[in-house]
Amino acid sequence: MIKRNQIVYRNERYGFTLRFPGWWRNYCIVSRAKLDRETEYEVHFRFKYKGKVYDDIFALLIYRMTKKEWIDRGYEDSPLGFLAEFDGRVIAYSTPGELPYAFVDNKTGDYNYKKYGAAIELLKRMVNQDVPRIVQTFQSPRKTVTMRSTPFRSRNVVPCRVKRRR
């Protein structure tokens, strides 16, 4: 069910949707810049505050690999979060590990909470509280294996015929 004040992001290319809190409209822009050579496709949700665009709030990354390959390559132990697998692709998400460098005071080398305090608190809320809820709204009309407790099912299931005892 879509709440009245939610924003629904639809990706027509891969057929998935995400739901965002309505108030994000003023603080988020979408960028589809491909920054990682290992990905097939990327969607970056970037932080916007008082007309200036900063780093990512989070990003969705699509890799051409199966979940088994994802695990074998060590991505399962990386900062990336697994979202879903479909058609030989893995959708993952990432959040920043640090605040944007733009919030650093050049004189002290520390974050300038006096100047950027409100922006820092807002970004921290978005990354730490909202993103985990947003990724839970991930939906795809395609046959997917998601991060939720969905068992992996092989496409080549062979029926087992057992003779019954009488």
How many structural domains are formed by the residues?
Answer: 1
Taking the alpha carbons of the first and last residues, their distance comes to 50 Å
Strand order of the largest sheet: 3-4-5-7-6-8
Share of helical residues: 10-25%
Which class of secondary structure composition applies to the elements? alpha+beta
How many strands in all? 8
Number of helices: 2
Shape: globular
Biggest β-sheet, characterized?
A: 6 strands, antiparallel
Q: For the CA atoms, what is the radius of gyration? A: 20 Å
Give a verbal description of the structure.
The strands form two sheets. Strands 3-4-5-7-6-8 form a six-stranded antiparallel β-sheet. Strands 1-2 form a two-stranded antiparallel ribbon. The protein is of the alpha+beta class and 166 residues long. The protein is built from two helices and eight strands. The chain has one domain (6-144).
In a few lines, what is going on in this structure?
The chain has 166 residues and is of the alpha+beta class. It contains two helices and eight strands, in the order βββββαββαβ.
Task: Give the arrangement of secondary structure elements.
Elements: E1 6-11, E2 16-21, E3 28-31, E4 41-49, E5 52-63, H1 67-72, E6 81-86, E7 89-94, H2 113-136, E8 145-146
Antiparallel strand pairs: 1-2, 3-4, 4-5, 5-7, 6-7, 6-8
List its traits.
166 residues; alpha+beta; six-stranded antiparallel sheet; two-stranded antiparallel sheet; 8 strands; 18% helix; disordered C terminus
